[in-house]
Each structure stands twice: as structure tokens, then as C-alpha cells.
């Protein structure tokens, strides 16, 4: 309660001095690491609409269900028919479901960063102990983690179903591990590309359209060019064309080093040398995405 000191004012003077009871904060100061972890946790929860409105939960949860239901159906069929192997390789599942994955990135990357840009809250983050690198790492790690959950969950369903169907433990474990490596790389690449595109505009709708164009349209264009090259007998060019789409880039990496069956026309996967190029380009794009985000938010935080 404010306490007035009338003695402090001269007769006839309207000046008043009030003691409004301000006290200094004497609690623990948790610092940058705690702030970064909190931002990561909040961003990861937001990627699935947790802590937000029911409307915000619908799309991410629906896409998560769409990713897992086909895997559950495959497992049910394998168990019922007593199959000797799963209908699909662990490394192939994400490529088959790439449209769902691209839609998830397109919807959640702008949600993660565009709102902060639109409402100009980024400088408020940087007014605290958190710095540009902390913000970028937290947002990048949160979206990559959300995508890993999205892509790894159906692989877990497949693996558990394979063990229930009493398929070979060693083969299934090896394939499951290869699948996890593949989707981890995919999550890092797609999250980086999605965040870079979304960070350019504060308009969420523009960000969604741009991410879809880069991921889905590029895949369609590359697949068309590869089909044309295959029809003309230029099979040697097919793996090189695959370098120009994030989806075919991941497919080339896992085809060369993770035992996956290539999705390229005619089954023409990259050679070991070409696979090295695929890996270097993938890692380069991930590093470039992080660098571009750092550069972008150094300007935004001014």
C-alpha cells in the first residue's frame, strides 16, 4: 500500500512523495542455460500445440497420427500373415511418407519463428541473459527434435511389431538403427531449411507456402527430371540430379551407406563416391542453415 508523507510537501504545493514498496529480487538467478532450456522446451511443446489452444493441436496431432497409422497397419498385416519380413524397410518409410513430413515442417517452422518476428518479441528475448546463439540453438533443436519424434515414432511401431511377429532380432535391430540414423539426418536438414525460410518473413502464410515450394515442389521437379533421364538412357545423370532436392538428398545418403533401396528411377542409386558427395552436401546444408539463422537473428536483435 502506498504511504503518503504529507510533511514532505510545502503548504499549497501539490507535490506528493509516495512509498510504493519496491523490493529488490533476492531469488536465484538461473542464467543463460536455464533460459535456453526453457525456450527449447516451450518451442518443442508448441510444435505439437501443447500449452496452446485446441485449434493449434489439431494439425500436428493429425499429421502424427497419419505417420503412425500406416506403420500399425503394416505390423498387423505382418503378424496376421506370419510374414518373414516387414512390407517396407525402416529406411524407406520416411521417404514414402515424405509429403506428410513436408507438411509438418511447412506448418511448424513458421509457427516457431514467424510469430516472434511478427510481434517483434525477438529483441525482448535478447534483453535477458539469452543471446543470439542461444535463441537459434533452442529453436533449431526444438524443431529438429519435434521432427525426430514424428519420424521415429512409426519406426518404433514397426520395430515392436516385428519383434511381436518373431522376425529375426538381429536383422530388425540393424534395420531399425539404420532407420533412426536416416530420420535423424532428415530431421536436422528439414528443420534447418524450414527455419531459414520461415525466418525471412513474419507472415506465417508466406512462410508455409515457401517451405512447401522448396521441399515438395523441388522433389516433384527433380523426380520428373530423373524420370526423363531414365527414359533417355542417361542413367549416369540420375544420381547427380538427386542432389537438388532435400528428399532425394536423404534418399541418396541412405541408399549409399544405410542399406536402403533407392527410390530413384530404375533403382539407380548413387555409387560410394557419389554417396560421399551426398553426405558432404547434406552436412553442408545443415551447417549453412545454422549459419544463415545466426546471421538473420543478429540483425533482428538489433
Question: If you had to describe this structure to a student in words, what would you say it looks like?
Answer:
- 71% of the residues lie in helices and 1% in strands.
- With 302 residues, the chain is mainly α.
- It has one domain.
- The longest helix is centred in the middle third of the chain and has 33 residues.
Give, in spatial order, the strands making up the sheet with the most strands.
Answer: 1-2
What is the gyration radius calculated from CA atoms?
A: 26 Å
**Count of separate DSSP helical elements:** 11
The low-pLDDT segments are 1-6
Tell me the number of strands. Answer: 2
Termini separation: 39 Å
Give the structural class: mainly alpha
Helix content: over 70%
**In percent, how much strand structure appears in the residues?**
under 5%
State the order of secondary-structure elements, H for helix, E for strand: EEHHHHHHHHHHH
What coarse outline follows from CA principal-axis ratios? globular
Query: Main beta sheet, described?
Result: 2 strands, antiparallel
Count of distinct structural domains: 1
Tags for this entry?
single chain, 302 residues, mainly alpha, 2 strands, 71% helix, 1% strand
